[in-house]
Write a structure and sequence with these properties.
The complex is a heterodimer of chains A (114) and B (156). By secondary structure, chain A is mostly helical. Chain A has one helix and one strand. Classes of the chains: A mainly alpha (114), B mainly beta (156).
Amino acid sequence: MRKTLTLLVASTALTAAIVPPAWSALRASADGGVGALAVDREDGVDTLPLVLASDDDDRRGLRSSRDGGDDDDDDCDDDDGVCRASAGSPATGTPAPPRDRIFGNGAPPKVQVN
Amino acid sequence: MKSPLATLALTTALALPGLAMARPVTLTTTLNDYGGDGAYLALYVTDASGAYVGSLWMAGAKSRYYEHLSDWYRATGGDPVQINGITGASVGAGRTLEITLDLADALFDAGCTLHIDAAVEDMRDSPNEVAVPLTTEGAGRPMRGRRYVASLRYDM
């Protein structure tokens, strides 16, 4: 009896540890998940001052940068709306979504812009 | 032989409920033809008390513009970790952004709300552009935004 109980507990623990990651991996491969997602961060880059037309209530929205031809268009211009890693960033692939209480198994998001 | 098989079947059945804790949810956001440039959108969730829970998606890659998504920015301090791996391009006027995410079941029917903050170049910021309670009953029902969002819908 004791032996059976021990085996039962061990099997449950093993199954609980193996099945969720295997399931998510299976789904990710089956769905052909989204490619690399990368945040085009600008850490260390000085924020350009925004030119505000008026006070907070009537504040204009985003302003494009006027220097060097850099505009407010995103670096990600892919049709699928996914930001790809830029040439200067580490080609380490897509970091998984933050593992917190809102996401499930951490599978990459699928994005489409029509 | 029968006993180990029975044991395995039993333990598998005990572990299966763990797989139902999250599910794929598709968020579909359609923008109005507001006649401007691409919109920055922050999609995030608050709990029943209004406290920030987490971000679901950031449409727009230039972090210097994130302060214009003011409610999201106030809740997160613009912390890039909040949107690590969940950032895409801004969304053009009249276009539709469709995102499929694995979301925890605990978000639904628990008083949580899905918010979108929106901002467009040379146009007015729109914090809390649209807010939708996350419920199983509300799935599939489109909600209209205040300025830029024609409809927001989530499907489970």
